[in-house]
Amino acid sequence: MENNLITNTCKVMSNVAVVNEINAIRAQVIANRTSSVVNGIAKAAMIAIAKEKMRSGVCHFVYCKKNGELREAFGTLTPALVEATTTGYGESRERYFTSAYYDCEKGGWRSFRWETIVKVY
Asked: According to the model, what pLDDT value does residue 2 have?
């Protein structure tokens, strides 16, 4: 029983997002855009988890495009790929309340608005 509790706790802890300045900003922006503080916090946590997964490999997630269509994406932000595919002279997408990722299927950079994230696998 105790071992099972530890295993379940570890699974939960691996999906916890740390509340730091950028996560708080994301939560506030999403809450303002969706008129829901709970929605803002939940989606900010999903983005933090997705970005962490992308930094260490490939993350599978879903967001809603501007036209209302759901987009299933496989994205990455591995340091070697980011260095190889960017010049470093552009502005961060975070400044425009969006998150950028390298789309593994399309072979290019894409971004999504913070409030449109639906699910992270």
From this structure: 42
